[in-house]
Amino acid sequence: MPGSTEKMRDDTYASKKWVVPYKNIVAIHDGEGYVEIVEQTNCFGGACWAEYHYKRTSPLIVSVRNVGNTMRYLTRVGREELILTPSIAAAGIEAVEVDSDTISITYAGLGGGGVGATISRALAEDVIDYDFTEIGGSRRSKGTIVLPKRKRVLIGVDDTDTKEEGATWSLVHNIAHDLDDKNARYISHSIVQLYPVPFKTQNCVSTVVEFACIDEAKLIRDFERLLRKYTLSPETGMVALARFDAEPLREYGRLVKQKQISREMAERTALEAGAEILIDGRGVIGALAALPYFASPMESVVL
Q1: Any idea where the TiaS-like TCKD domain is (predicted)?
Q2: What pLDDT score does 211 carry?
Q3: Phi/psi zone of residue 226: left (φ > 0), alpha (ψ -120 to 50 degrees), beta?
C-alpha cells in the first residue's frame, strides 16, 4: 500500500486509536556498510518493546542503545529474512538499503508489532515515502520507509560565559534547537565535565551537540554565526567534526578530564583527527574534548 505520507497523516490511519506515530526517524550512513537509525518516539513503552524484540530477531542489528527519548540502532546494510515468533521475537528490521540520496528501512512484525513496525513509523516526520502490507490482528506485516541519507556532524563548544552571566550548555542547546530543521536534525546534547583548570568560570564543563545532516556546511556556518552573536566571552572555542564516530579523539577527551593541557596540543590533535576549528579562543581545548562524548550524556558528566 504505497502512498504519500502527507495523505496518510490526513486519512483515517492517523486518527485510529491503535496507531501511535513516531515523532521522527533519521538514518545516518557511515559511507561504507553501516547505518545508525535514530528513532524519536512518542511512546517510550512501545520503543522499549521494539528494542527487546528487534535485537533478538534481526541479524542486521549490531547494537541498540537508549539515549533520552530515542532508540539508536546500529545496523549493517543488507537484507535478512526474519523468523518471527509471537511473544519472544515478534518484530524486527528486515532490510537496510542505501541509495545515492536515500536510505530505505524495512520492518516486519506480527499483530500489534506489525502496526508499530509499519504505519507508526511511516507517519514519522521526515519519512519521504512508504510502502506497507495489511496490518493488525494475527497477520504478519511488513513496511518500508524511505528517509533522507544523512551524515553525522558533531559541534563542540566551550567558554561562552563569564563569572557574572551565561551558561555554555544552555546557549549551545538553544542554538541547536533553533537550527533543527529538515536539513539538520538535532539529536543529542552532552555536558562534558573537564579537569578544573585555574581559568575556569565555575564548573569547568564543555558541551557537544550532535546533528544528522544532509548539508553539513550550511549547519556549521549557521551555528558559527549564532554562536559569535550570542557568546559573552572573548575566549570562546568552537570545533566541528563531520564523521560517523569520534574515536580518534577518545584518548584526548579522557586526558582533558585528567589534567590541564595546552592549546597547542589541542590544535595539533584537531588537525590529526580532521576536526575543524571555527572559533579559536582558549575554549578550543575543552570544545575538542567534548566531541567523543556525543550521545553519552550519562558518561560525559563524570570527571
Answers
A1: 155-212
A2: 98
A3: alpha
Question: pLDDT tens-digit profile of 23-32?
Answer: 999 999 999 9
Task: Enter the pTM of the model.
Answer: 0.91
CA dist., res. 83 & res. 274, Å (int):
42
Distance CA 215, CA 185 (A): 11
Contacts of 10 (CB under 8 A, 6+ apart): none
Please name the helix (run of DSSP H) or strand (run of DSSP E) that holds residue 71, with its range, or none.
Answer: strand 70-76
190 neighbors 169 (Cβ within 8 angstroms): no
> 220-237 pLDDT, tens per residue?
999 999 999 999 999 999
Instruction: Cite the DSSP H helix spans in the chain.
Output: 5-10, 12-15, 44-57, 112-117, 119-122, 168-179, 216-230, 250-258, 263-273, 284-290, 297-300
Separation of alpha carbons 213 and 217, rounded Å: 9
Q: 231 and 171 in contact (C-beta within 8 Å)?
A: yes
Contact 270, 262 (CB under 8 A): no
**Residues in Cβ contact with 174 at an 8 Å cutoff, skipping those fewer than 6 apart:** none
Place of cell 516526520: 125
pLDDT tens for each residue of 88-144: 888 999 999 999 999 999 998 887 666 677 788 889 999 999 988 766 556 678 889
Angle between helices 168-179 and 216-230 in degrees, nearest 10: 140
Domain ranges of the chain: 5-149, 159-300
Q: How far apart are the first and last CA of the chain?
A: 52
Dihedrals phi, psi of 202, to nearest 5 degrees: -150, -75
**Alpha-carbon gap, residue 245 to 74, rounded angstroms:** 12
In this structure, what DSSP letter does residue 274 have? Answer: T
Fold of 159-300: Alpha-Beta Plaits (3.30.70)
